[in-house]
């Protein structure tokens, strides 16, 4: 019993080609606007939080023994799973995932020389206040040191929403782990 | 050839951002920060919004660190069965 998709290969190929082209154009047009709004709302859904909690527990169980302290291991795992949940659409998530591959020597160097080159604010202000705050923001959101101001705000928006979800998921998890576990059996029966 | 020049140079334009653009993005950001959501947008300067955003992100980072601390302790002390029960419970919440 051949399936219907095989019966007319030529017409099917043409039709799918046409529809694919139309769909692609439509998607590209709508995608950008929709992507921004759905991305923002995505971090607020309960489903996303549940998916994150599950993946986090799995990752934590697999990486029980690590070289660094257990708290940093948990933090790094949580960040990594969060970045993976973003599905590569945002810069901060890609930066988190790639930063695991290289040691953080460069980061420390920036911090060390920052104190030496710091200009006293009492002198002529080379850098306007707004620029200075922007620089702090750039440091806080991973991977956003050189992008434009509008993109930075978009990344920060998504990053904040994602962090809030991460906190909700981890808090819920911590609550469940610290509560008594014996009662669950009696509730289900 | 000269008609092609109607498109301005992309690299030069990026650095010059209009005031309107800034105001628009800043007001969007203001809606996200719990501190600033109740304040009227014309009373809150861009500088304040940026400052509060930085503070807020730092607070969120700190909360994640605290939760990581707590989770690491809890995971070390619980056995597999309790952990699995906890997962189920947290998913049902």
From TrEMBL, chain A:
GO MF annotation list: protein dimerization activity; transcription cis-regulatory region binding
Keywords: Nucleus, Transcription, Transcription regulation
Name of the protein in question: Transcription factor bHLH149 like
InterPro entries: bHLH_AtIBH1-like (IPR044549), bHLH_dom (IPR011598), HLH_DNA-bd_sf (IPR036638), IBH1-like (IPR044660), IBH1_N (IPR059002)
Chain intervals with Basic and acidic residues compositional bias: 27-42
Region (Disordered): 1-44
Keyword Cell inner membrane: no
Leader sequence residues: none
The UniProt record lists the keyword Glycoprotein: no
Automatic annotation (TrEMBL), chain B:
GO MF terms held by the record: protein dimerization activity
Keyword ATP-binding (UniProt): no
Keyword field: Growth regulation, Nucleus, Transcription, Transcription regulation
Compartments, as annotated in UniProt: Nucleus
Start and end residues of each BHLH domain: 6-60
Stored CDD domains: bHLH_AtPRE_like
Keyword flag Transcription regulation: yes
Name this protein carries in UniProt: Transcription factor like
Organism, as annotated: Actinidia chinensis var. chinensis
């Amino acid at each position: 019993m051949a399936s219907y998709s095989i019966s007319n290969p030529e017409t099917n190929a043409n039709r799918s080609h046409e529809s694919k082209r139309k769909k692609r154009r439509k998607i590209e047009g709508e995608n950008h606007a929709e992507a921004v709004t759905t991305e923002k709302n995505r971090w607020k859904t309960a489903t996303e939080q549940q998916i994150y909690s599950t993946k986090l527990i799995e990752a934590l169980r697999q990486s029980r023994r690590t070289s660094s302290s257990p708290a940093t291991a948990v933090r790094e795992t949580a960040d990594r799973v969060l970045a993976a949940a973003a599905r590569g659409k945002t810069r901060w998530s890609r930066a988190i995932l790639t930063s695991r591959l290289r040691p953080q020597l460069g980061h420390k160097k920036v911090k060390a020389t920052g104190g030496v080159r710091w200009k006293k604010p009492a002198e002529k202000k080379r850098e306007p206040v707004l620029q200075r705050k922007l620089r702090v923001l750039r440091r806080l959101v991973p991977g956003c040191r050189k992008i434009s101001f509008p993109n930075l705000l978009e990344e920060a928006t998504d990053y904040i929403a994602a962090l809030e979800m991460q906190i909700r998921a981890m808090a819920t998890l911590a609550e469940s782990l610290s509560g008594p576990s014996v009662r669950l059996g009696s509730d289900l029966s | 050839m000269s008609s092609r020049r109607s498109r301005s140079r992309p690299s030069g334009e990026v650095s010059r951002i209009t005031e309107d653009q800034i105001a628009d993005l800043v007001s969007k950001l203001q809606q996200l920060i719990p501190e600033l959501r109740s304040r009227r947008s014309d009373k809150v300067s861009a500088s304040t919004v940026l400052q509060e955003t930085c503070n807020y992100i730092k607070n969120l980072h700190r909360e994640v660190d605290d939760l990581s601390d707590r989770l690491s302790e809890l995971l070390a002390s619980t056995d597999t069965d309790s952990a699995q029960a906890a997962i189920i419970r947290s998913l049902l919440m």
